[in-house]
Amino acid sequence: TLAEIDFSKLKITKKINPTKFNDPNELPLGSISDHMVVIDYDSDFGWHDPEIIPTEDFKLDPAASVLHYAIECFEGMKAYKSKDGKSIRTFRPTENMNRLNNSSTRIALPNFNGEEVIKIMDKWLEIDSKFIPINGHVYVRPNHIGINNCFGLKGPKRSRLYIIAAQSKSALNYDNFTPLKLYSNDSKSHVRAWPGGFGNTKLGANYGPTAVAEATCIEKGFDLTLWLFGENNIVTETGGSNLFISWINDDGIKEVVTCPLSSNLILPGITRKSVIQLLNLKGEKIVEKEFTIDDLIKASKENRLLEAFACGTYFFISPIGLIRPPKGNDIKIPTKINNQWGEISKYLFDNLSEIMWGNTTNHEWCHKI
Ligand code: PLP
Fold this sequence. Notes:
Elements: E1 11-12, E2 35-42, E3 46-47, E4 51-54, H1 65-69, E5 72-74, E6 77-81, E7 88-91, H2 93-106, H3 114-127, E8 137-146, E9 158-167, E10 180-184, H4 211-219, E11 224-229, E12 234-238, E13 242-248, E14 254-258, H5 270-282, E15 286-288, H6 293-301, E16 305-312, E17 316-324, E18 331-332, E19 336-337, E20 340-341, H7 343-357, E21 366-368
Parallel strand pairs: 1-4, 10-11, 10-17, 14-15
Antiparallel strand pairs: 2-3, 2-4, 2-9, 5-8, 6-7, 6-8, 7-21, 8-9, 11-12, 13-14, 13-16, 16-17, 17-18, 19-20
Bound molecules: pyridoxal-5'-phosphate.
Pyridoxal-5'-phosphate binds next to α5.
């Protein structure tokens, strides 16, 4: 049997001259933490001893499969520091580890024991705890890449799992938040994911090819691309988040809808899963079903649209105020009226913030370090 990742074999090498700062909020966005986690795999041995080392550049074989065939997958997480600065939490990290294992399988990379990686991550976040702003968060990026000489497309013999943390924008403040504006392309010319494809995994190969669409969308003054699929322009997700709509349906019933996970058209977001669980507890009618851009246009014309929001690790709960369809007039959503968010977006924002930072409770979704 091949060696598994083993926390008890963790080797730690600390940076000799740690970066100096009084407050991590002073660091530019995108600054990377002083230390990183690195765990290497080879197919003869299995997983090597995990290491925490000073963050450094990699030396890679120019024929590495990550560089040629995009043998790569990743995760997006956050580490949160409480108001009193005393505790650090991650949100449902087992879910991220499971998804990284699914993505790894999809792209012929080896699996690993996620619970051991969580223990290593905890230790690493403790070492770099000063990097996390009080009452704020850092973005945590586990990455898994194929590193062997790749000629001939086959499962890589060697891979590297590494984790870095970056300063990212602080949590949204809903008093001065401008609702997002989404831009949608016609799905006949632009598709992000398709049935039988890999849109349900977090491969770099899902993101690189959307960079042109995202740049066009920003150029046109929008915040994010809304991806549509198929003849009927099914509403799927944005380039970096899942999407929820609250409306009065054709039968006159209030419900919250989101694209289903079947067909591989969307990423199974951990925030999405949590939103569904929280809204079920709240007693809202929540339906995972396909709906089209024409359904949204019709609901808008009939004044049945109530709220829309993007949700994900990066976007958290971000109300959407406008969607530009491929044809016709913009769809306006009354997500923010008199500077007040819609009831559902606000409920989720407040409850999820409380769970993530754990200022008054310690919710089972939170992993306290
Ligand atoms: N959909 C896409 C395309 C994403 O990149 C993300 C990542 O944040 C999500 C959805 C939301 O997933 P999660 O809530 O796990 O962050």
